[in-house]
Amino acid sequence: MFAGSSATKLDNFLQSLDNPDPKNSFNQRLLEIYMEWHQQLPNNSEAVFKAGAILSDMGEHSQAIPWYRKAIEMDRYFIMAYLRLAASLTELRQYSEAETIFLKATSLSPDLWDNYKEYGEFLLKRGRYQDALPVFKKGTELMPDLIPFWFYYKLCQVHIGDLEGAEATELVIQEIKARQRN
User: What is the pLDDT confidence band of residue 38, given thresholds at 50, 70 and 90?
Assistant: First the structure.
């Protein structure tokens, strides 16, 4: 089908996609591409963001953070850059700063459901169920048919001892599932 080296290159590329190592050659090449893009378009916040995202995906969170900060500096409404910055800070256990960034993203774009998903999960993973409850509630208001918001909301209810509320939330989940099946 493919001639010699072309087949080998294709095989290597396909193997790199399945490589569990986050620092595989595919990610390395993507990083090179975004760095080149940034050099050609130094004022493009998307190129800066993408470089940070690849670094995060490679587990290089401390290297990714300056890229996210630069993307935000270039576009103060780049909400996904705030969310990825907060996630990298969380990975580095800089929880207080991460929470500040989550709150900033939410204040800049209060109707973006991603803010509530990411911030709610952050709170949930810290065992802050009471704090996470209104965050997930807001998520259910923005995306009423998105079951994970309801599931996390119910999980928080169980952890704070609101078993009656959790049962009511489970009924909502079952209603959504029934609607989605039809």
Answer: confident
Residue 4 — pLDDT band, cuts 50, 70, 90?
A: very low
Q: Residue 137's closest CA among 161, 109, 168?
A: 168
Environment class of 34 (CB within 10 Å of its CB; exposed 0-12, middle 13-18, buried 19+): buried
Cα distance between residue 162 and residue 155, in whole Å: 10
- Would you say residue 7 has pLDDT above 80? no
Residue 122 neighbours by CB under 8 Å, 6+ apart: 86, 90, 98, 99, 102
| CB distance 102 to 119 below 8 Å | yes
Predicted model pTM: 0.81
Residue-range domains of the chain with CATH: 12-109 (1.25.40.10), 111-182 (1.25.40.10)
Count of CB atoms situated within 10 Å of the CB of 105: 25
Q: Residue-wise over 130-158: b if at least 16 C-beta within 10 A, else e?
A: ebbbebbbbbbebbeeeeebbebbbbbbe
